[in-house]
Amino acid sequence: MDTIIAKIQNKDSDEAIYMKAAQILKNGGLVAFPTETVYGLGANALDEMASAKIYAAKRRPSDNPLIVHIADVADLDKLAVDIDDRVKKTVKAFWPGPLTMILKKNQCIPDSITGGLDTVAIRMPSHFVAANLIKKSKIFIAAPSANISGRPSPTRAKHVIEDMNGIIDMIIEHDEVDIGVESTIIDLSVDKPVILRPGYITKAQLEQVLGEVFVDPAIQGNIADGVIPKAPGMKYKHYAPKAKVIIVDGKDNDVIDVINCLTKDKQLEGLKVGIMTCSENMKKYKADVVFDIGSRYDEASNARTLFEALRLFDEKKVDYVYSESFPTNNVGAAVMNRLIKAAGHTILHV
Ligand code: TXA
Ligand code: MG
User: Whose CA is closest to atom 31 on ligand 1?
Assistant: First the structure.
């Protein structure tokens, strides 16, 4: 398939891009587009044939449900039932923005996009391209991240092109995304609100609006221990580069010594090594690829760079990645959640 690749850059040409994309979506096709979190791969959420194409393009397991993206709060009623005060307060505080709510689904939602669950994930993105596309196509857009399943989520158009060129109808290009990790998911279909996936909106922020908020125990725990996550997608070893990823955690100097030592050992075996570090320690390492994901005092920059780093290690065909661990006060909690998954929970405490 020839994929149309079009860049949003000025008002004159943008309108034609949105019109083309809207037409493709209405005809049951697939369009990738930027959001504030990561690039999404969109299809008409209420068209089962269209959303089936998402699963095929991503090679995504069919039990992993999709998020439905809307551009107008008034549409919430059409997609979900039991919309209570908690939902209204959450919408007011965080939409449009990087927060997905799990709610009891309305009958119009096909089972195929919820993986057979009686709930639906809904998000109203704040990125102007995503919002315009939803408004102009006059549909609800089901959109997972626009990567092949198991690869790091795309934070730049070139990542989408790497994974999806020739497979989908259209890719809308724009700048690097602002946030870089996927939305926070909160389950409000149950009595006590539960975070199913950490993201830019933190537990503390949610608690200011909702009171006590719980965290799905499977998020931090080892799935091998038998704890099953409530968001089906969280059980997969997502975000995995092809290399074996090992997190080394401990006091700074110890971490640096151990990573340099392990790197030397692997290189003696003829293997290629990548290191992921904060900017402060960048110069203290020697390896085939050293990638700095920003200052340790800048969690937002860590989030924006993480997936790009994981993709670069793939591109450079490294065999091993040693990574420092990063602070988790804000969006850093999401960074460490994704990194721990990429590492298949391999953490070396030194
Ligand atoms: O930031 C984001 O949320 C991005 C952009 C494109 O909006 N989208 C995204 O979608 O990350 P995806 O498909 O990569 O991740 C959706 C997650 C999966 O872990 C899935 O299992 C979970 O949401 N999910 C969807 N519907 C659910 C439901 N009804 N109950 C529990 N988890 C659900
Ligand atoms: Mg994803």
Answer: 231
Which band of pLDDT confidence, cut at 50, 70 and 90, is reported for residue 100? very high
Confirm or reject: Cβ of 120 under 6 Å from ligand 1. yes
Cβ(304)–Cβ(180) below 8 Å: yes
pLDDT digits (tens, 9 = 90+) for 152-195: 999 999 999 999 999 999 999 999 999 999 999 999 999 999 99
Let me know: does 68 contact 152? Beta carbons within 8 Å.
Answer: no
42 C-alpha to center of ligand 1: Å?
A: 13
Would you say 147 and 153 are in contact if contact means Cβ atoms under 8 Å apart?
yes
For 258-293, what is each residue's pLDDT tens digit? 999 999 999 999 999 999 999 999 999 999 999 999
**Cβ–ligand 1 contact at 144 (below 6 Å):** yes
Distance of alpha carbon 273 from alpha carbon 325, whole angstroms: 17
Buried/exposed 215-224: b ≥16 CB within 10 Å, e otherwise: ebebbeeebe
Query: Can you list the alpha helix ranges (DSSP code H) found in the chain?
Result: 11-26, 48-58, 76-79, 85-94, 111-114, 128-137, 157-164, 203-210, 252-268, 299-315, 332-342
- 3-state SS class at 228: coil
Among the bound ligands, the one closest to the CA of 100: 1
